[in-house]
Amino acid sequence: MRTLAEELFKDFREHSVSEFFRKNAAMLGYTGKIRSLTTVVHEGVTNAIDAAEEANILPDITVAIKRVDEDPEHLKVVIEDNASGIPEEFIPHVFGKMLAGTKLHRSMQSRGQQGIGISGAVMFAQITSGRPTHVVTSTGNGEIVCADVMIDVDKNEGRMMNGKKLKGNWRGTKVELELKEVKYERSRYGPYNYLRMTAIANPHARITFIEPDGKLTVFERATDEVPERPKPMSPHPWGVTADDLLALAKRTKSRSVASFLISELSRMTKRKVEETRRLSGVNLNKKPSELSWEEAERIVSAFKQIKFMAPPTSGLRPIGAANIENGMRQILNPEFVYAVTRQPRVYRGGIPFIVEAGIAYGGGAGRKEGGEEVEAEGLDLIRFANRAPLVFDQGGCAITLAAKSIDWRRYGVDIATAPLTLFVNVVSAYVPYTSAGKQSIADEPEVFKEIREAIMDVARELRRYLYRKIRARERQQRAGIFEKYLPIIARKAANLAGTQEPDITPLLKKVAGLGDGGGKDGP
Amino acid sequence: MRTLAEELFKDFREHSVSEFFRKNAAMLGYTGKIRSLTTVVHEGVTNAIDAAEEANILPDITVAIKRVDEDPEHLKVVIEDNASGIPEEFIPHVFGKMLAGTKLHRSMQSRGQQGIGISGAVMFAQITSGRPTHVVTSTGNGEIVCADVMIDVDKNEGRMMNGKKLKGNWRGTKVELELKEVKYERSRYGPYNYLRMTAIANPHARITFIEPDGKLTVFERATDEVPERPKPMSPHPWGVTADDLLALAKRTKSRSVASFLISELSRMTKRKVEETRRLSGVNLNKKPSELSWEEAERIVSAFKQIKFMAPPTSGLRPIGAANIENGMRQILNPEFVYAVTRQPRVYRGGIPFIVEAGIAYGGGAGRKEGGEEVEAEGLDLIRFANRAPLVFDQGGCAITLAAKSIDWRRYGVDIATAPLTLFVNVVSAYVPYTSAGKQSIADEPEVFKEIREAIMDVARELRRYLYRKIRARERQQRAGIFEKYLPIIARKAANLAGTQEPDITPLLKKVAGLGDGGGKDGP
User: Fold this and answer.
1) pLDDT digit string (tens) for A350-359?
2) pTM
3) Alpha carbon of A203 to those of A109, A200, B205: distances in Å?
4) How many CB atoms are located within 10 Å of the residue B259 CB?
5) DSSP string for B192-215
6) Given A31, A85, A100, which is nearest B14 (Cβ)?
7) Mean per-residue pLDDT over chain B, rounded
8) From CA A322, how far away is CA B233, in angstroms rounded?
9) Is the residue at A311 inside a domain?
């Protein structure tokens, strides 16, 4: 006779990660017709810019969204880049296998990281339109590979179909995804605004966008400087856990724990290894694979007592204040812009990050509806992580919380009406995202504090500008008054005195000059 | 010569789903020391209650949290149930393999569903304390299995160690997880409140809780009625997509599409199949495996034009208004309680759900700090999905949004100060969670609207009660006045008339009786 448990466990099944995300597509950002479309664009563009960065070239990206038939919710998204291309044998894995990619085991800043994004987009296309994703790619070896890719959801594997090869000298990748249940709109949450934000944070990229109605927009690059490629960074001793240490020990080629610590962690020197040995009492001559949990814990707690240099931040690649200002100028054409790149900081003991903020006032800055030039409607907060725009889930994001925590009146602005765009970018090899959709940064205390400081830095500069502007306007008004009444006074005075009316033009010029507002500040 | 792409792709790697969630533990709710502890308790208790439900027995669950050593952030969580037990060969899969479980391919209401929860807790234990999870289980076959389980993160596989078997007549499962980096606190977000909420929503469960200081609390069951086991429900034609249909077609045993539609979907009859055939023009005699995407799309769009009965809701198991009231009475001991279980509704065209709401006023109701009886501090919103408490991520949750959208003053309460507990439970085979941590319900329009209606239902009843209470108090005050002045008036009148003072007791009793407030309402 079977027990109850045996009866119940006959239904025990295993799922693939693709099947999991198929059922839970909302976790990847596929929720709502507008957001789903923007998510697909985001995944394609993220991959394109990351690839260009790896290849050390200026990205030239074209995004086209086209109608397929009468159904306005049936669209094709085409994303083309000029990066390194994908070797043929990797095509099914890149587009059809989740949790696979080139960025998984590195401690390095990049937009993508988990190997889910583009496969998720391929899956969304497949489950809404039933169509494979069409890929055209070449590594520049004279051969262009064209193929269709679908995901075998049960196995989490990509299937390549209709593959063919052409001759040609081109390098790059073009991806065509056919989607249903999506909607194109020029709203704050649509692809247009997403690409506009991407252009601001990636002033070295040229992004060409073709909308379903055929309208073409080029977000021209604001600099020809290729950003330096981010470098992998070894973890800092203060940032590793016992479990991390053992995971590293499993993969290392070092023969002893001592040499392993030096090769796999940053800021470890022979002297620091000696200190670790002394404080932990662990025999560091043993093989890394023989390290026990308890020894790893003792090593980690010894680390906490040792003075190390701060974690290296040489691998982090902020956009840079000048580039942010250029990007905001290029896209927003504001009357005032100012940006700051703060010094590196760490969170959770040893994970380095950098916060950048920029502020733009007037011109195209401020909340716009529909992306067209309409009346300004108050503060537009644009959030980024490693230069990728965060468009959704703003509510719980540390950037939103930090911006809200500022008393803006102290900086002379009413954020409900001011034509203001506030830009924040958080740069790290480990951005603490709150979900797989990567649209919101967790409220880590150090990160929150640093974002707040950065915003206050740029807000102070804005206050100075606005103050000068008010002063200038007052002076101008004063000058206007002189201009109006001086000639009258001069005439009346001359009449009274019975003398000839004096030439007051030089005097007026002098007064008007003071009202220029461009120059030095008065006392 | 290697191309740039070949150079870059030499780092191409694959991750297991365990490795993914190890790096992104926050997505499973492991963020912060208090929340991490509550998440472990949640996963264990969820599994225990689900298992009891499957076994059709009254759950008897013991949760103990113990200190391990001097370190207050080093704790052991022990969760024991009296359910069906786990067959030996499934132990490593249940506790050590993510995306594996008995609930994956069913359309059935349950707390757990994805086969991630308890393995996630085992992994959290392992990466913080380095210790395996100790499991003791018996299916009631006279044999008790004890074993340690760890997860091989690289392979997403469970490893069983130190297994041994004892003789004994016991049935159930006991799990011991050793954790570091956690913190015990009796706050709103801690295990105490979590279990208190669980007890309210599961009045058929007895939950015994032992805190680290040894304090024992028994949340006694408020009913001995075992809830009927939820039944798997076939999807409704209006709720399936073309992709769903093809996925079902792949697994069916039916020989023709026509019989497949009847066997796999609800509300399909021979007549409806005929209508589908006519409207779609698809040959329904072919094998299900031969169905093309385009045909599946035509079938799905034919479904939309056919009148079907509403989706079956026989498989949904709400708690029931009387049980919610009992649960709230048992735990909160309020002066007023009222609950409602609404009629089933559907969202996204065909996914059935039920909303229940309960309200408690006075007594232990309202926001308390530390779980102790302190002064009431306004509305306490307690959210549930399939009877499991949602403790975190309240911000974006549809329940919170619906509760906030109510104009509470219209119901005569100031939610900032009233001793009020509002209970909402959303029941569905597919609760639209916003993340893998399952702490927040997505803002689906139909779900939001229904929650709002449910809250207004109970709020109206509260208004009626409060109104009666105010009336009663007014009457009492009136009666008080009579009591005070009638004797005086009687005496003076008697004196004036020179008669004997009358006995006014019967009159006073009559007036006081009106002031009882318990009886009928006045006009």
Assistant:
1) 888 999 999 9
2) 0.81
3) 18, 6, 60
4) 18
5) HHHHHHHHHH-TT-EEEEE-TT--
6) A100
7) 87
8) 60
9) no
CB–CB of A16 and B99 under 8 A? Answer: yes
**What are the pLDDT digits (tens) for B50-86?**
888 888 899 999 999 999 999 999 999 999 999 989 8
Which of the residues A2, A7, A10, A11 would you substitute to probe the B interface, choosing the one with the greatest number of B C-beta atoms within 10 Å? A11
CATH number of domain containing A259: 1.10.8.50
Shared domain check, A189 and A70: yes
Q: How far is B243 from chain A (nearest CA, A)?
A: 5
**Nearest CA of chain A to the CA of B107: how many Å?**
12
> What percentage of chain B exceeds 70 in pLDDT?
92
Q: Which of A26, A101, A103 sits opposite B434 (nearest CB)?
A: A26
- The C-alpha angle with vertex B114 and arms to B110 and B119, in degrees rounded to 5, equals 110
Residue A433 included in any domain: yes
Of A84, A105, A434, the CB nearest to B13: A105
Mark whether B497 and B371 lie in a shared domain.
no
Q: What is the mean pLDDT of residues A203-230?
A: 92
Which residues in chain A have their CB less than 8 angstroms from residue B87's CB?
Answer: 3, 5-6, 9
Assess whether B356 and B479 both reside in one domain. no
A100 interaction partners in chain B (CB closer than 8 Å): 12-15
Please judge whether B15 and A104 are an interchain contact, meaning their C-beta atoms are less than 8 angstroms apart.
yes
CB contact under 8 A, B153 and A4: no
Distance separating alpha carbons of residues B125 and B25, to the nearest angstrom: 12
Residue A496 and residue A380 in one domain: no
Q: Which residue of A has its CA nearest to B107?
A: A23
Of B16, B139, B243, the CB nearest to A4: B139
Spatial separation of the C-alpha atoms in residues B325 and A268, rounded to whole Å: 62
Of A281, A305, A329, the last residue of a domain is: A305
Asked if the Cβ–Cβ distance from B90 to A432 is below 8 Å, we say no
The alpha-carbon gap from B518 to the nearest alpha carbon of chain A, in Å, equals 46
* H-assigned helices in A222-284: 242-251, 257-264, 270-280
The domain in which residue A338 lies consists of 321-461
Mean pLDDT, rounded, for B396-407? 92
Residue B195 · residue B216 · CB < 8 Å? no
Kindly state whether residues B443 and B300 are assigned to the same domain.
no
CATH of the domain at B165: 3.30.565.10
Planar angle of CA B28, B33, B35, nearest 5 degrees: 45
Of B9, B396, B436, the CB nearest to A87: B9
Category of B457 on φ-ψ map: left (φ > 0), alpha (ψ -120 to 50) or beta:
alpha
Length of chain B: 523
Number of domains in chain A: 4
- Give B291 or B504, the one with higher predicted confidence: B291
List the CATH number of the domain containing A406.
3.30.230.10
Q: What is the pLDDT of residue B371?
A: 45
Question: Does residue B88 belong to any structural domain of this protein?
Answer: yes
Instruction: Give A439→chain B minimum CA distance, Å.
Output: 12
Cβ(B382)–Cβ(B394) under 8 Å? no
Final residue before a domain boundary, out of B460, B480, B496: B460
Same domain, A290 and A158: no
Whether A9 sits inside 8 A of B100 (CB atoms) is no
ipTM: 0.76
Which residues of B fall within a CB distance of 8 Å from A241?
A: 127-128
- A12 vs B5, B93, B127: nearest CB: B93
Residues B59 and B202 in one domain: yes
Helix, coil or strand: residue A265: coil
Q: Based on the domain organization, do A152 and A116 belong to the same domain? A: yes
- Which of A2, A13, A93 to mutate to probe the B interface, most B CBs <10 Å? A13
Query: Is residue B213 one of the residues assigned to a domain?
Result: yes
Q: Do A104 and B293 touch (CB under 8 A)?
A: no
The percent of residues above 90 in pLDDT, for chain A, comes to 54
